[in-house]
Design goal:
There is one protein chain. The protein has a domain of 119 residues: Cytochrome c-like domain (Cytochrome Bc1 Complex, Chain D, domain 2). Helices cover 28% and strands 0% of the residues. It has seven helices and no strands. Helix 3 crosses helix 6 and helix 4 packs across helix 6.
Length: 254
Amino acid sequence: MSFELNKILGALLGAMILAMVTGLIARALVNPEELAKPAFMVAGGQLANAPPSAAAAPAGPEPIGPLLASASVENGKAIANRLCVACHTFNRGDPNRIGPNLYGVFDEAIGQGHGGFAFSSALEAHEKQKWTPELLNQWLAGPQDFAHGTKMTFVGLPKAKDRADVIAFLDSLSERPEAMAPYETKPAPAAKPAAAAATAAPPATPGTAPTTGKAAPASTGNKPAGSPATTPAAAPTKPAPAAAAPGQTQPPGK
């Protein structure tokens, strides 16, 4: 073995030893603290050490029925072209992309059709249902909440009005769009405030003195107003006769 080869191997060995020693020293000097929660939370993700209460199922979105009557197909199309076009196509006969083609999806069976698109197993729990406006509302509000584990990484539309517009647009992607009237509902009426008369005291009748919680004074007969009321003295009671002494009789008539 030549002297030059020995120098090369020695230099490589020395470099590896230096790198290993440098790593040990750096690990001893630097003690990184683990973050309490991730700096960026992926949609649908949960903390590994989160308490059970933090993993509770979120409340569902507000009902979409009251907003369908005023839903805008044009606004829904604009939202879809801005947020969904990267993964979906909308025209009849268009190929699937990362997500399925959405033509005719309204009122279609969930997780089926669309040219053999491989839907995620997370949608199997809904395979016997159809894409109604209310289910589309839940899906658009949070795909991971509707079908946890789905391949769709979209975080959802937080505004109910935007979801209603997108649903109206999806309904229009058909040769015979479904009528939205059967799905429209009126908003619940606002609760009426309690009547003030139910809690207020009844008004006093003219000519009568207000009630103060005290008993009215006893009648004083025909005495003029302002004179003090007097209570007649009770008649004196006759004392009972004394008992006769032993051996004596009480005379009659006394």
